[in-house]
Specification:
The complex is a heterodimer of chains A (288) and B (442). Chain A is mostly helical and 288 residues long. Chain A contains twelve helices and no strands. Chain A folds into two domains: 42 residues; 213 residues, MetI-like fold (Orthogonal Bundle), CATH 1.10.3720.10. Chain A is 82% helix and 0% strand. In chain B, the strands form two sheets. Chain B has a six-stranded antiparallel sheet with strand order 2-1-12-11-10-9. In chain B, strands 3-4-5-6-7-8 form a six-stranded antiparallel sheet, with no helix packed on it. With 442 residues, chain B is an alpha+beta fold. Chain B is built from 13 helices and twelve strands. Classes of the chains: A mainly alpha (288), B alpha+beta (442).
Chain lengths: 288, 442
C-alpha cells in the first residue's frame, strides 16, 4: 500500500483535478468555437457564391412543390395513365440498379478476398487491390457514366457499368472488413486436405460471411436505385431522364413530373422496407 | 429402441428435406440469376452495343488524356503559317518565339518530326514529307486540281490515305494533312499542354530553378509573385476556378453533413421510444424522417434549385435535407440503446433535465454519433460532386461541362484525378478525426 496518491495531500489532488478539467473544457471550447466559425463562414461563402441567396429563397421553397401539386391535382384524371406510361422507364432504372449491384457485388467479393490479410491469393498484392478499391470508390458514378456515354452512346449500359464499378469499390472495402472477422480455422482445415484457393474461399470463407454479405448487398441495392435515378437525369436513360424532360418543359408538364415523383418515391420506400425486413431476418435487428 | 428408431426416421426425413431445399437454392438461385441476365441482355440491347460503340471516340479520349498535339498550319490562300498548341487561339506561339523544331524559311517552313521524319512547306503550296525508311513524297495543292502527289497511286504505302480533295499522311512521328485550302502538320507530345503557364506568359518554358533563384524575368514584378500570378490566372487550365470549385464541393459536404446532424439530433429525441412516451409525436417524427429519406436527394436537389438557383448553397441544403432523415433514424436508434443507469445516477444527484441529457445521454451516444457523421462526411464529398453536376456548383459542374464539350479530355482527366484525391483525402481526414475523438478501437 505504498500508493503515491495516498501520500499526496487532498487539496493538491483537488487543484490538479480542477486544472485538468479546466484544460479539457478549454480545449473542447476551442474546438466548438472553431466549428461554429467554420459553419458560419462556410454558410456565408456558400450563400455569397449561390445564384439566389438563402434569405431571398427560403420562402419560395414551397412554390415549386405547390405548383407541381396544384397542377397535378387539376389534371388528376391523367395521373393513372401517366403512371402507367412511365412504368417501363422505372423498370429500366430498377434493372440498372439490380444488374449493377449483382456485377458490382461479385467484383467487390473478388477484390475483398484478394485484399484481406490471411485470405489473399497473393499476399504481396494486398495494397494494390486495396488501392484499386479506394480509387473505384472515390470516382463518382456520374464521371464514369458521362465518359462512357461519350464512348458508347446513351442508354442503360453506361449507367450500369458506372454503378457496378463504384459498387465494386465500396463492397471491396466493406466485405474485406467482414472477412477480417471470419474464422480462419475452416480455411486451415481445407488447406490441410489440399484444397485450392478457390475451394478454400468457396467452402471455408463464403459460408461464414454470406449473411453479412447479403445484408450489405441489399443495402447497396437501395443506394444504387437512387444512384440510377440520378444518372438518368444526366442522360443515361430510365426514369431520371423522363424526369428531366418533363422538368425542362416546365409549366404544363408538371402532371408528368408529379407522376414520376410518385413512382420514384414509392419505389424507394418499397425497396427500403423490403430490404430492411430481409436484412433483419438475415442478421438480426440493429445491424448496419 | 422404438422411440430411437422413430426419432431416426424423423431426423432423416428432416435432413432429406433440408438437403432438397439446399439443392433447390443452390441450383435455383443461379438459374434465376441467369434467366434474369438473359432478359437484361436483350432489354438493354447489348447485341446492338457493338454498333453504337464509338471506338474512335475512345481512342481520342485515351490519347488526349495523356498527350497533346501542336498544329503547324498554313493557309493555302494567304500563305500565312501559324503554330498553335491543340490549334487553339490561346495556345498560339507569338511571332519570333516559335518552338525550335519549326524553322521559317523563305515562302515556307521546315518542320522536324521525331524518328528522323521531316516536313517542308515549300513555295507555291507544296509540302514534302520525308520518311527515313520509305522516301520522299511531295504534295501540291492547287485551286484547279485539288491535291496532287509526286508518286503514282499504286506505289503509295498504307499510311497515306487520299482523295482528290484531301491527302492524309499518318505515321508514328506525326501527321500531315493537305486540302485545297489548308496544309496542316500535327506533332504529338507527351503531357498536358500549358499546364503551368500559357504562351503569353514570360515564364513559359522557363525552368523552375530560374524562376526561384535566377535573375528577374519580368522587370515589372518579382519572379515568384509573377509566376504565381500567371499560374493562378492561367486562362486555359483556370487553376483559380478549379481551386474554388473544389472548395465549394468540400463546403457543400461539410455544411450539409454537420447541418443535418445538428437538426437531426434534437428531433431524434422526439423519435426515440425511451425519451418520447407520446406515441403520436413519435410516429409523426419518424414518418417525417422516412418521408425526407424517401424523397430522394435528386428530387430535393430539383426542388431546392428552383428556390435558390444554382450554386453551392443549394447543394449544401440538398445534402442537409436528405441526410437529416438518415441521421434522424440512426440517432434515434442509438438513443433507444442508451443505458438508463447512467441517467438515473445523474438524476439522483439532483440534476436538471438539461444536465441529465448533457451528462447522462450525450457521452453515451457521442461515439456512435460522431462516427456516423464522419462516415457521411466522406461519402457526401462524393455526393456533392454529383449534386453539383445537377444544381451547377463545384467541381461536379466543371467536370460535366468539360465532358460535354467533348474535346478537353486532358482537363477531364485532371478533374478526375483531383476528385479522387479529394475524396481519398476526406476519407483519411474523417478516419483521423474519428480516431482522435473517439479512440482507435472504435
Amino acid at each position: 500500500m505504498t500508493d503515491t496518491a495516498l501520500n499526496t495531500p487532498l487539496p493538491q489532488i483537488k487543484s490538479d483535478y480542477t486544472a485538468l478539467v479546466r484544460q479539457r473544457r478549454m480545449y473542447s471550447g476551442i474546438g466548438v468555437a472553431i466549428f461554429i466559425v467554420l459553419m458560419v463562414s462556410g454558410f456565408m461563402v456558400a450563400d455569397a457564391r449561390n445564384a439566389g441567396g438563402f434569405w431571398d429563397g427560403w420562402h419560395q421553397m414551397l412554390d415549386f412543390p405547390a405548383g407541381v401539386l396544384s397542377e397535378a391535382w387539376e389534371k388528376r384524371a391523367n395521373l393513372p395513365g401517366l403512371l402507367w406510361r412511365y412504368l417501363p422507364a422505372l423498370v429500366e432504372t430498377v434493372n440498372i440498379a439490380i444488374v449493377a449491384t449483382l456485377i458490382g457485388v461479385l467484383m467487390g467479393l473478388g477484390l475483398s478476398l484478394l485484399s484481406t490479410r490471411g485470405l489473399a491469393l497473393w499476399p504481396g498484392a494486398i495494397p494494390l487491390f486495396r488501392r484499386i478499391s479506394d480509387v473505384l470508390r472515390a470516382i463518382p458514378e456520374i464521371v464514369i457514366a458521362l465518359v462512357l456515354i461519350f464512348m458508347m452512346g446513351g442508354g442503360p449500359v453506361p449507367a450500369m457499368i458506372a454503378i457496378a464499378l463504384h459498387t465494386a469499390g465500396a463492397m471491396g472495402k466493406l466485405y474485406s472488413e467482414v472477412n477480417e472477422n471470419a474464422d480462419l480455422k475452416p480455411v486451415e482445415g481445407l488447406t490441410s486436405v489440399g484444397a485450392g484457393w478457390m475451394q478454400r474461399m468457396m467452402l471455408g470463407v463464403i459460408p461464414q460471411v454470406a449473411p453479412n454479405y447479403l445484408s450489405y448487398a441489399l443495402l447497396r441495392l437501395e443506394i444504387n436505385i437512387r444512384a440510377s435515378a440520378i444518372l438518368g437525369f444526366v442522360g443515361a436513360g430510365g426514369i431520371g431522364y423522363e424526369l428531366r424532360n418533363s422538368m425542362t418543359f416546365g409549366m404544363g408538364k408538371f402532371d408528368e413530373a408529379a407522376a414520376i415523383f410518385i413512382l420514384l418515391f414509392l419505389t424507394i420506400v418499397i425497396v427500403d422496407q423490403v430490404s430492411s425486413h430481409l436484412r433483419n431476418r438475415l442478421i438480426g435487428p440493429g445491424a448496419h | 429402441m422404438t422411440t430411437a428408431t422413430i426419432d431416426m426416421t424423423a431426423a432423416k426425413s428432416a435432413a432429406d428435406r433440408l438437403i432438397a431445399r439446399k439443392r433447390l437454392v443452390a441450383f435455383g438461385v443461379p438459374g434465376i440469376v441467369l434467366v434474369y441476365l438473359t432478359y437484361i441482355f436483350f432489354a438493354f440491347d447489348i447485341p446492338g452495343l457493338a454498333d453504337r460503340m464509338r471506338l474512335d471516340n475512345a481512342a481520342i479520349l485515351v490519347s488526349d488524356s495523356y498527350s497533346y498535339k501542336t498544329h503547324v498550319t498554313r493557309d493555302n490562300r494567304s500563305g500565312e503559317i501559324s503554330v498553335a498548341k491543340e490549334g487553339e487561339r490561346r495556345g498560339t506561339y507569338p511571332e519570333g518565339r516559335l518552338p525550335d523544331w519549326v524553322t521559317m524559311t523563305d515562302g515556307g517552313a521546315e518542320i522536324v518530326l521525331p524518328h528522323g521524319h521531316r516536313v517542308t512547306f515549300g513555295p507555291d503550296n507544296t509540302a514534302t514529307y520525308v520518311h527515313p525508311d520509305w522516301g520522299t513524297l511531295t504534295l501540291q495543292a492547287s485551286r484547279a486540281d485539288g491535291v496532287t502527289m509526286s508518286v503514282p497511286e499504286a506505289d503509295l504505302p498504307d499510311w497515306v490515305t487520299h482523295s482528290s480533295a484531301r491527302v492524309d499522311i499518318r505515321t508514328e512521328a506525326g501527321r500531315l494533312s493537305m486540302t485545297r485550302n489548308r496544309t496542316e502538320v500535327f506533332r504529338y507530345f507527351f503531357g498536358w499542354e500549358l499546364f503551368w503557364f500559357t504562351l503569353d506568359s514570360p515564364y513559359h518554358d522557363v525552368g523552375l530553378a530560374r524562376i526561384l533563384v535566377g535573375e528577374r524575368i519580368d522587370p515589372e514584378r518579382s519572379n515568384i509573385a509573377g509566376a504565381w500570378h500567371d499560374f493562378w490566372n492561367n486562362a486555359m487550365w483556370r487553376h483559380k476556378e478549379v481551386a474554388w470549385a473544389l472548395g465549394e464541393t468540400v463546403l457543400m459536404a461539410f455544411l450539409g453533413t454537420f447541418g443535418a446532424a445538428m437538426i437531426a439530433l434534437p428531433l431524434a429525441f422526439a423519435a426515440a421510444r425511451n425519451f418520447m412516451p407520446v406515441l403520436l409525436v413519435r410516429g409523426l417524427v419518424r414518418r417525417v424522417f422516412d418521408f425526407v429519406r424517401g424523397v430522394d436527394a435528386l428530387i430535393w436537389t430539383i426542388i431546392l434549385s428552383r428556390a435558390f438557383g444554382p450554386g453551392p448553397l443549394t447543394g449544401a441544403l440538398a445534402i442537409l435535407v436528405t441526410d437529416s432523415g438518415s441521421f434522424g433514424k440512426l440517432f434515434s436508434e442509438a438513443l433507444e440503446n442508451v443505458d438508463r443507469k447512467q441517467i438515473e445516477g445523474i438524476t439522483s444527484t439532483g440534476a436538471a433535465p438539461v444536465q441529465r441529457y448533457r451528462f447522462g445521454v450525450i457521452p453515451q451516444i457521442m461515439p456512435v454519433l460522431l462516427s456516423q457523421v464522419l462516415y457521411f462526411l466522406e461519402s457526401n464529398t462524393r455526393s456533392a460532386t454529383i449534386i453539383g453536376a445537377i444544381t451547377g456548383g463545384g467541381i461536379g459542374l466543371m467536370i460535366t461541362q468539360a465532358i460535354q464539350t467533348q474535346k478537353d479530355w486532358e482537363e477531364v482527366t485532371y478533374y478526375i484525378v483531383l476528385i479522387v484525391l479529394i475524396v481519398i483525402a476526406m476519407d483519411w481526414f474523417s478516419g483521423w478525426l474519428r480516431g482522435r475523438l473517439i479512440g482507435r478501437s472504435q
